[in-house]
# Entry
Amino acid sequence: MLYWLSTLGTDGGIFNLFRYITFRAGGAFLTALVFGFIFGRPLIDVLRRKQGKGQPIRSDGPEGHFVKAGTPTMGGLLIISALTVATLLWARLDNPFVWMVLLVTLAFAVIGFADDYAKVSRQTSAGVSGRIRILAGVAVAVLASWWAMQNHPAGLAGALALPVFKDLLIHLGWFFVPFAVLVILGAANAVNLTDGLDGLAVMPVMIAAGTFGVISYVVGSTAIATDLGVHAVPGTAEILVFCAALIGGGMGFLWYNAPPAAVFMGDTGSLALGGALGAVAVAIKHEIVLAIVGGLFVVEALSVIIQVAYFKRTGRRVFLMAPIHHHFEKKGWSEPQIVIRFWIVAMVLAMIGLATLKVR
# Structure
């Protein structure tokens, strides 16, 4: 929205700054951060009054979690509101990729909100049925994937770009849609599974968003992409503004989610943020790199899949409890130890993901 001010700076001057994506990304970050600081406490107070007993705690969960009873959920509303306001203010609204990632984020936020509302209103850890959530997520992801294909360059539409290999493309055609659906839906649910400890999910999401913001800027610039040997996707540089807004909103939320959490993000936040990362990866043609940068989320999701499959087959468990962060809780790690160590892992994986831009 504020981009139009750049038309007032044709002869230089302060308004010319609004032409630059990096300047607007900084503005989006600060806007979302301040939004979170201003509206965080009032939102938490409203959620506490409306929800009463707060988020239901799983009866089969770690014993230490019962002290969190009464903590309100749906705090993801703070992140998503800050992200949306900042993106609409600072991004170019004539860019189709901005609308793609923003609408995917909002759609998954609605799905998550419905699930959180069902849990709180019924005071049970079982919300909306998994089948309904998956079907709704698939519908959103299919539309987003089709939208991305329509706006990708002719040579990249329907193709899978591989990291490290400079010129290698796997042309999937319309099979790219189910692949992209798997990426978006998988990312949404993987982040959702990771969100089990105070601050555990939001920081790795911000780290991944920062990484993909840089990659978006690179692939969105034909000159930089050509110099690095990366497939250029014109227009995606604007996604940097969205990623900066996500980081700002995430930091504003983390202020209140730091242990002991005053609010949980709930499915409203975790599904939306995971869906956002998946949508960004599809938009910039770095779906495989998402598995590297978001490797922490992949491991969390795999730990659940392995646990369930092995238990059904043998009646025994691989992990003391899944997702894997609960396994470490059962082994005696304190919550801050798990959270900070997982943050470190997320940072290392982000650096590896960024390195794929240069290793060609």
Remarks:
- The two ends are 37 Å apart (CA to CA).
- Residues 21-51 form the longest helix (31 residues).
- Residues 2-355 form one domain.
